[in-house]
Amino acid sequence: MVQELSFINDIVSEHRERMVNLKKYYPFFRLCDSSFLQFKEGKYSALDMGYVMMAVLRFFIEENSLEERDVTYPDYEAFITECLKRDFPVEYEEEEYQEIAQYIFDKMKNDGRPFLFEYYDPVEKKKRVSRIKLLESCVKENQVRYNITSDAIEFYLDTKEIKDQSKISVQQLLLEKLIQARNFKGGTEVTARINSEVSRLKYRKNEVVSLLAIDVFSGIEAYEDFVENGMRWFEEEERLFVKNMELVDAALLRAEQETEKNELYYHTLNDIYLLATQLKIAMNKHGQLLAACTELSVTADEIIRKSKLRRLRNGFDFRSLLARMIKNDDADILEKVITPLFDIHIHKSFNAVMVDNMLTLKPERKEMVERMEAEEEKEIIFPDELEEKRMNHNFVVFMREILEKLRRQNRFDLQEFTDGLVEKYSEKIYKNSDYYAFLVHLCQKKQYSMNGRGKQETFLDGIIEEYFTPEDNARYGGQEFNIVMGSEGELIELVIAGMQVVNIIFERAGE
Fold first, then answer.
1. Rounded to whole angstroms, how far apart are CA atoms 267 and 279?
2. pTM > 0.90: yes or no
3. What are phi and psi of 395, to 5 degrees?
């Protein structure tokens, strides 16, 4: 009963707020209904009112908010004419383009009247009317100038973010319009969205640092993307923060100077205080983000420098060079190796003072024999060779475990095999990357035969052939087994690793 009353209360109490949120979409669908089919007997039916309306809104946002310029009718007419010529596969006379532009403009201005959106208020049990405008006009310097409204900006942002523009900057443009319209409660909601975006950028910055520590190349790409789409807007965002804070302070000052202090006055004052608090929090977070991004730049440079040093090797691999030449069928690479050898210029000089020393030098009566102790040549082992040696050893161990288990039973699956490894080698097997690499290589063939030397079909065959000892060959020689892959829906979960893989069946051949 309590639950039923709760959802009924939600229906009644939240209906008005939902309708207010829906009203910004009303002009779009109203204009789409009054399509070009009804104009001049469908002469311009090839045009689409929905697309044209969105293009005009984007034009006004660019001019009014981003470029901070008022729009005159000739500016609008030039833009919409170019848009129609470019985006629709029809051609009209210049007079017809002017006629179309005037028709679109009148529809969007609704002949100078606001769009009326009617809805029922179940709380007060009466019908209400919300008014919404897309464009506003004013006279400056004896010329009519047009501006987009905050409702139109909010509608456009709800459909999709403006491309190649800071989300924080765009939201602040909407905040500016809401403050000027004295919609302080709506401004608080927009500021909360700005705070969320700042927090997202801060989280993204931490992801970039983590990626740089794991993979420098991917980290550099992520860092460059973050700089391009996040950091480059900081200066503009700071300017808009200061501008909006000044608007809030001015609104607060005007509110405090009002003489009539009724209930509406205190509600308005409270909304302004909440907006000012949220905006200060956003400015503080944005400042912290700017400091963190400056630190990110220093950290990225240091990680890249260390990575370059680690990649320098104290030897030259001629085999790798030869393989690259064969693969690319290009011997020009040798030029980079040989050219420095022809540029060696060794200039030797002899000090004339040494001539006197040679003439006055008295030789020893008895030659001293110099004893030379032979030094053992140290073998250089590179890190990748150590990795390869470890991986080959682990592959052989896993293959031995499979063969040993097949000696005891004819058939088992991957889950049973993994449980046996965990029991023998502990749960660290779940975190052993060589184990998953071994399974990938193992599944490249459907049948394995331990019959000594034969054709090496896979990389794993070569490792087994090279690293199996004579004792292994004597114990497992002649043993054959098949690998049966489970269906895609037959998954097993490796609990510790938190991942799922397709099940694999191991069965002794001939069973």
1. 18
2. no
3. -60, -45
